Amino acid sequence: MTYTTQLQNGNELNRLYEDDRPVHEWYRFVLSFPPHLVRHYVEKFGLAKSQLVLDPFCGTGTTLVEAKKLGIKSVGVEANAMAQFAASVKTDWDIEPDKLAEFGRDIAKEVNENSHENVHGGESSKIGVSVYKGPLRAFDAEQSRLVIKNSISPLPLHKVLTLLTAIRQHDAADLRNHAKLALARQTVKDISNLRFGPEIGVGKLKVDAPVLEPWLNALGLMVHDLREFHASSVTPATAFRADARDMGRHLSPRSIDAVITSPPYPNEKDYSRTTRLESVLLGFMSSREDLRRQKRQFIRSNTRGVYKADDDHRWDEDIPRIQALADSIEERRLELGKTSGFEKQYAKVVRLYFGGMARHLSDLRALLRPGAKLAYVVGDQASYFRIMIRTASFWRKWQNDWVTKCWALSCSAHGFRPPQKSAFEKKSCFFSGMAEVLTWQEQIAIPG
Ligand SMILES: C[S@@+](CC[C@H](N)C(=O)[O-])C[C@H]1O[C@@H](n2cnc3c(N)ncnc32)[C@H](O)[C@@H]1O
After folding, report:
1. Which atom of ligand 1 is nearest to the CA of 87?
2. Which end of the chain has fewer surrounding CB within 10 Å, N or C?
3. Domain residue ranges in the chain
4. How far apart are CA 383 and CA 249, in angstroms?
5. Atom of ligand 1 nearest to the CA of 264
6. How many CB atoms sit inside 10 A of residue 179's CB?
């Protein structure tokens, strides 16, 4: 099937193809985009193995994994610690598959041997059996407040924490991250009460659930894939935990040949919420302050992640179309008499979102090689009071506004003159409202 057919077949677009399962399937979230989309742009851009691809919103690493499979170097930036961890593990193929299999066997043996004390009150030798009498391991009060209520029932949580302790105590430090990612995957997928559809919610509460066996299966999947890909581990792929509006600390000037990414949209998705259980489980977040710190690094795209000190709106305050859009949302709110705190924030989120993306573009500018290709996969939304937010059109029609603005701000900071015309030249747009491809034209020297 060609990419065009897939696009016409709307619901095909986001599917993970059977052949793409290896490695990508180690951990994905509902907001991941499909690997075939990455292949499409790699092909379209004619990227060579010596070139470097960036995904500034890399999530769980779809772009990085796919680039690595193709032997192309890649870097990713991601603000969500759990997603960045997943991307790092998914691009670490420098692991002996047999050692990982042995790790699984060791842990299974240990957990089973100690099960009388930790898991089953001595009535069973299998961690997956639901007989238990002793005290349960649990999240502390702060951790419990962070996870969505009833995300996971007490007995399954106890088993998961028992297994996690065994993983953490195992001598083979280089294998622990793979083991932890496999546990995060299975906890969300099979052990917890969470459901995704596409919003995260709580389904039927499970009194008990097997833990060891699903984890071993997930580890087995990794072992299987590593047997195929271990030899390709030489292609570099690195995921940094950072803010896409401030990437210069991690990436070198003029180093990027292509960007392939699916950035956030102003669609009320809370990227910290979809990964909350596993973030708390693996220790990426253990207090409200950790959560706030993480959310502050996100491009503002939902009303639950807006803070008093936010000022990205200054990046688009003189772009008339963005102001008109935000104004129309506020007018509709007043017409409808909507007065809740969230509803009052809608117009503000739109201004902060587009301002944040402008800031990101400005930061990106110095990192691109002249002629670099950019694919931003964005979708149109009817998020706030059913007012259409045509994010892709912003890229298509308003890029000059953005780029001029970015230049005006960063050029004055760096003390050199903005170019007369847009530094981006639009080459093509694949699908109305879907993706935008731009080519970076800048030729002048970047200071420093
Ligand atoms: C649509 S998702 C990308 C999914 C990714 N393509 C994948 O396959 O998993 C957008 C991502 O942007 C991240 N994000 C939001 N604001 C960010 C920022 N300022 N810097 C870096 N990442 C950010 C979110 O945490 C989320 O993982």
Report:
1. 9
2. C
3. 3-92+236-273+288-440, 97-232
4. 34
5. 10
6. 25
Sheet with 256-261, edge to edge strand ranges: 237-241, 73-78, 52-55, 256-261, 368-377, 435-440, 424-431
226: tokens are 């590593």
% of the chain surpassing 90 pLDDT: 57
- For residue 2, give every residue at least 6 positions away whose Cβ sits within 8 Å of its Cβ, in sequence order, or none: none
Residue 130 has pLDDT above 50, yes or no: no
Q: For 191, which DSSP code?
A: I
Whose CA is closest to 218, among 305, 100, 313, 370?
A: 100
Give the residue with greater pLDDT, 315 vs 54.
Answer: 54
Distances (CA, A) of 399 to 404, 405, 407, 422, 424: 8, 10, 12, 8, 8
Has residue 447 got a pLDDT over 80? no
Instruction: From the CA of 58, give the closest atom in ligand 1.
Output: 5
Q: Is 57 in the pocket of ligand 1 (CB under 6 A)?
A: yes
Q: Exposed, middle or buried: residue 160 (CB in 10 Å: 0-12, 13-18, 19+)?
A: buried
The rounded Å distance from CA 18 to ligand 1 centre is 24
Of 316 and 91, the one with more pLDDT:
91
Number of Cβ atoms within 10 Å of the Cβ of 438: 24
Q: Is the CB of 60 under 6 A from ligand 1?
A: yes
Q: Which of 271, 278, 378 to mutate to test the pocket of ligand 1 (most atoms within 8 A of CB)?
A: 271
Ligand 1 mean position, distance from CA 82 (Å): 11
